[in-house]
Amino acid sequence: MVGQYECTARALLKGNGPVERSRRKAPGPGELASFALLVALRRQSEIAAVRKELPRRSFNFFRQSMDRTLNEIALMNQAASTLIIERAAALPAEPVGSRAAWGAMWTLLFSALTKAMTLGSQIALAWFLIPEEFGLAAMALSVMSFTAIVGAGNLKNILVQVSDGFDVEAGRVFWFSLTLNMAAALCLVVFAPIAGVLFDDSRVVTLIWVGAMAQPLQSLCTVHLAALSRSLRFRRIAMIQCIASALQYGIAVLLAWLGFGPFALVLPLVVVALWNVVALRISAGAIPVGRPDPRQWGALGEPVSWLMIIALFTALMTSGASLTIGLLQRDAAVVGFYFWGFSLASQAVFLLVTNLQGVLFPVLHRLNGDSQRQFAAVEKACRTLLAVAIPVCVLQFLLAGPFINLLFQERWQASIGVVQW
Q: CA–CA separation, 171 vs 156, rounded Å?
């Protein structure tokens, strides 16, 4: 029956057969059934074809949509990158000059306060201590100054110059610095009896042993001091150093008043080292240093050697005269006259020149890529320092004699020439 209806429906669509000849007649039930069957068959075939074609069309549509989306994202990234580069090129150069000026201002401000305390402590110590006690402390400090070339203030310059990978370099410098300072402390302990023989005074031995305790502590704050310098946080550094000076000279005056003699100038070094470790650690935060790996220390050999050479000449400049006078004269009083006069005279120079080194070094390092700006900054800094330092030195030369005679009369008169020249 179904086959008959299908043939009739196909004949109806082709327009021939008995159905065509009787077109004008009303269709019978058989014709209607045949036509309905044909429509159903065509509908099923179309649905099957769509189902077969749908996965391929859907995948092609999805792929084309993803391609258009990725192309639009690439164009947006390219436009954004171009805009960022253009805006970065239009920005002014990093205002390191302004930060250097503020850093220099805070450094000079706290340094001026420090030097005021130092001047007051030098006057107070000159009342409580005699020249011989100053001389004993000077001979011990002159020996210790040559081991300070491996201190935190020198090795931190390596970290200041690191462009990338500070965390990696911090661990190497920390352990290398700690090892060097431990070795320096051991050398002081071993060399102290020899120094006592060379100076012809056994009291120097104990002073050197006490000062050696501060040597390892100085290395514990190397990386933290470098981190603060890299971030140009000069105000915080100057504040910590100011408090350290207040502790050092305050304890020195107290111990001198209590009758500790030359130990009043050496014992505060241990307290100051502990203060720097705590204060710098709190200010800089936790810095991972890992475990020591001596195999990685070889890369630090060359830069550390140059820094040590510079520190050696600095030690010769500041303590070489006291060491030489002690070895030649073997008289603690003579060394004391020179040491006290030099300490008093060098306050202005250290205030205006030495303390600014901690500001200028990290700032000038940031200008390594621009030699013209770097040279201009160095030239401007030198002119400014000379313009300020020369009048101060002239004024110091003129007032040294009247000032010392007024406060101490004949007790420290032998130091006038040292302060003037």
A: 12
